[in-house]
Design a protein that fits this description.
The chain has 262 residues and is mainly beta. It has one domain. 11% of the residues lie in helices and 29% in strands. The protein is built from five helices and 13 strands. The strands form four sheets. A four-stranded antiparallel beta sheet has the order 1-2-3-10, with no helix packed on it. The chain has a four-stranded antiparallel beta sheet with strand order 6-7-8-9, with no helix packed on it. It has a three-stranded antiparallel beta sheet with strand order 11-12-13, with no helix packed on it. It is globular, with a radius of gyration of 20 Å. 24% of the residues are buried. The mean pLDDT is 90.
Length: 262
């Protein structure tokens, strides 16, 4: 095969002279965590990691970036899509990776989950992510108390040390993202129950729109709408929407979202 003749080479060559290369318009640009970060700190005492812990993230909007499980977004994160799960036992949806911050854990802020980035082409035309989620209640409190009880000289307590994982009582969730072309994405989720009993798992795709209205009273709320004719929800970016720090026109246009049971 000649150099530069693979499908991936052609995709990369097709988008090398634009402000946002078209095959890079959509990609894995969503943070593992935006809680416990300096960029989201608006505290008066400068305690960045304590100001916005994981426990607050489900009820407070971020300003600078979203987070999520296997999240993808456009290049400037007007819109992000990620996946949430529920095992029927947790008091909250599993929308994002759990972890502890500096005052909660023995070695500072840290994610306490099991997940793998397994594959990703340079064009992001194919991505694969694997996540492990307990079939029983997620051990939020157990992980927190175990780390608070350990000295800095001791090893951190991880979710792999819990009974749920030692006994393989978890779901294994494979999330594949494929680009049909540089504009259209398809997602495939495959879930495996590794415990001996039959268990139910709820899968919830989530769409997050950039929070511009909380910081600028002149900005309107971005909203999803339902299209009865196509049986899909959609989002259309306002033509006059201002995006900070970008000195060229940028729009993701109108986006439809379809799903089906399998």
């Amino acid at each position: 095969m000649k150099k530069g003749s693979t499908s991936e080479h052609l995709r990369m060559m097709d988008s090398s002279h634009e402000h946002v290369p078209k095959w890079h318009l959509w990609g894995p640009y969503v943070s593992e965590r935006s809680w416990g970060t300096v960029r989201e700190d608006y505290s008066q005492d400068g305690e960045a990691w304590n100001y916005f812990p994981h426990d607050l993230a489900r009820s407070k909007a971020y300003r600078w970036s979203e987070d999520g499980i296997a999240g993808v977004s456009d290049r400037y994160q007007i819109m992000a899509l990620s996946f949430a799960f529920w095992n029927g036992k947790d008091p909250i949806l599993k929308e994002r990776l759990y972890g502890v911050n500096g005052s909660e854990g023995n070695h500072g802020e840290d994610v306490k989950e099991v997940y793998f980035y397994e594959d990703n082409l340079p064009s992001h035309a194919y991505m694969r992510y694997r996540y492990f989620y307990p079939v029983d209640e997620f051990p939020y409190q157990k992980i927190l108390e175990a780390n608070q009880g350990r000295a800095k000289s001791e090893q951190e307590f991880e979710i792999e040390d819990t009974e749920e994982f030692l006994k393989k009582r978890f779901f294994e969730i494979s999330i594949e993202t494929m680009k049909i072309n540089h504009q259209d994405l398809a997602f495939c989720l495959t879930c495996t129950n590794h415990c001996e009993e039959e268990k139910e798992l709820s899968l919830l795709p989530q769409i997050t729109l950039r929070n511009t209205w909380s910081w600028d009273p002149n900005e309107k709320h971005l909203q999803m709408q339902y299209d009865e004719e196509h049986g899909a929800i959609y989002f259309e970016q306002p033509q006059n929407m201002r995006i900070p720090f970008i000195n060229f026109y940028y729009s993701i246009g109108k986006r439809y979202f379809y799903s089906k049971e399998s």
